[in-house]
Amino acid sequence: MRILLLASAFNSLSQRLHAELRDRLHTVDVQLAGDDEELLDAVHRLKPDLVLAPMLRTAIPRELWSQLTCLVVHPGPPGDRGPSSLDRAVQEGRTDWGVTVLQAEAELDAGPVWAWAPCRLPGYGKSDLYRNEVADAAVAAALLAVERFASGGYAPEPQSGPGWSGTVRTRPALRQEERRIDWAADPTEAVLRRLRAADSRPGVLDELCGGAWYLHGGHREPVLRGRPGELIATRAGAVCRATSDGAVWIPELRRRTPGGPAGVKLPAATALGGLLPALPEVAAPLMPGEGDGPVWSDLRYREDGPVGFLRFSFPGGAMSTGHCRRLLAAYRFAAARPTSVLVLGGGRDFFSNGIHLNVIEAAPDPAVESWDNITAMDELVDAVLTTTDRLVVAAVGGNAAAGGVMLALAADEVWCRAGSVLNPHYRLMGLHGSEYWTYTLPRRVGAAAAERLTRQALPVSAATAERIGLVDRVLACGPEEFGPSAAHLAGLLAASPTAQQRIAAKKAAREADERTKPLDAYREEELAVMHRQFFTPESPYHALRSAFVHKRPVPTGPAARA
């Protein structure tokens, strides 16, 4: 079939459905919502059999849904209605949830149900859940709905009448008044639910250091205490704030500027800058001891016999210059440990999306910060590529893009979860890219496929990535099971009788490649192009980066034709 994906943004779920539908040999077009006339023109031109809307902030015009079947993916179970379904579910502490695919009608979320799938909501932020448990359920329900539509004989279930046994709950948008935190009264658990329900968008509006800020994300602090509402410590760019009965870590902030441009979401300490009071930097141990309790950290190393596990988790998958340098130091520590297999990653959400565009945008000189960031990424990738005394596995539990994909490709093996989406390209940001991709990508998929992947700039499903050789293994498991499953496989890899032979062969292959063309040559060639793109004011990169960071439309977007 020809399917038109209609979305307010080509976000993680839209990309995943785009890739999954193409894997099933559907012809998929993408149209960004916002201009009804443009939408109707696109429908007239493309003549889709079906419109599928995985992420919408606006209503589908009557002229469209009255003439063509339009299916909307709603992040709530049947009968749930309203624009803040997932936000409210997280803030209320719901653990059982679901995703519904329903037909667009005049009343929002009230059309007949074509399919739905249940899902669990463990204690993570809304955006993490959206990309993982909710996305898994959304894809399952959407693919079933598409299959039912294609059959031509399925009758969707109306959400009313004698055949409807569900409960209808229509709830308004979750406003900042309902998200507000009372630091003196709300217990830590309630504070965490509010922060997690708004972690990526829209944030929780609050007063901090004499200004208005949106707080993004939250993690429990088990030991530190202070006067409710006060900042009591920093850790790796996050700030710790006391609650009525404990404390929470807040990784990111965004300044509210009434009447001015929207603030940029940044690491909390960076955002506050000179407003941040003198606070102790309370570092978390990279390698916790047996007596250490649960401590939040964005970097953690552990060992299980001959296997080392270096896990990292940066908000939104973005890696600033500081993130890269800290991860490089942790990697060097891990690479000096007595192990034969080192697993890099293994978390349930983003692996990496490459350089930190928000930090770059907010920097006094974005070109200089861009350069510092990409060279720091290159140093990290170089360390992985030149590790020849053990096997390195990149465990990609969530999505990865641009330099984050290339970081994974520096490993000897790449394992990813079945729900992961990979974007192995830089083109949509107007960049050539570095991270040694001109060496690692053709080495894996061949020169022709590497050129196609970077030129087409389309999302790649885990299944397709495995088929073309971009990854070595796909783990068909849920987000919570990915880490343990990868750890089990890493143990088997270390125990394999051929492990030492593979390590020796890897070292020999690296030496042979170095004689053919040194790694430094790849890096110098890539960075020569990147330097021009960073330091030329007219370079498309600067306008594209700014539009991306500030959520403004740009003339170019995701490929609308596949």
List the helices and strands and how they pair.
Blueprint: E1 2-7, H1 12-23, E2 27-32, H2 36-46, E3 50-55, H3 62-65, E4 70-74, E5 80-81, H4 85-91, E6 96-103, E7 113-120, H5 126-131, H6 133-151, E8 169-170, H7 176-179, H8 188-196, E9 204-208, E10 211-216, E11 219-221, E12 231-235, E13 238-242, E14 247-250, E15 252-255, E16 266-267, H9 268-272, E17 299-304, E18 307-312, H10 321-335, E19 341-345, H11 357-362, H12 366-385, E20 391-396, E21 400-401, H13 403-409, E22 413-417, E23 421-423, H14 437-445, H15 447-456, E24 460-461, H16 462-468, E25 473-475, H17 479-495, H18 499-516, H19 519-535, H20 540-549
Parallel strand pairs: 1-2, 1-3, 3-4, 5-8, 18-19, 19-20, 20-22, 21-23, 22-25
Antiparallel strand pairs: 4-6, 6-7, 9-10, 10-15, 11-14, 12-13, 13-14, 15-16, 17-18, 23-24
Helix pairs in contact: 1-6, 10-12, 12-19, 14-15
Describe what you observe in this structure.
The chain is an alpha/beta fold and 562 residues long. The chain has 3 domains: 2-157, Formyl transferase, N-terminal domain (Rossmann fold); 176-275, Methionyl-tRNA Fmet Formyltransferase, Chain A, domain 2 (Roll), CATH 3.10.25.10; 299-480 and 492-549, 2-enoyl-CoA Hydratase, Chain A, domain 1, CATH 3.90.226. Helix content is 38%, strand content 20%. It has 20 helices and 25 strands. The strands form 6 sheets. A 6-stranded mixed sheet has the order 2-1-3-4-6-7, with helices on both faces. A hairpin with a 4-residue loop joins strand 13 and strand 14. Helix 1 crosses helix 6, helix 10 (321-335) runs parallel beside helix 12 (366-385) and helix 14 crosses helix 15. 47% of the residues are buried. This is Hydrogenase maturation protein. InterPro entries: ClpP/crotonase-like_dom_sf, Enoyl-CoA_hydra/iso, Formyl_trans_C, Formyl_transf_N, Formyl_transf_N_sf, Formyl_transferase-like_C_sf, HoxX-like, NiFe-hyd_mat_HypX/HoxX. Residues 36-137 form the Formyl transferase N-terminal domain.
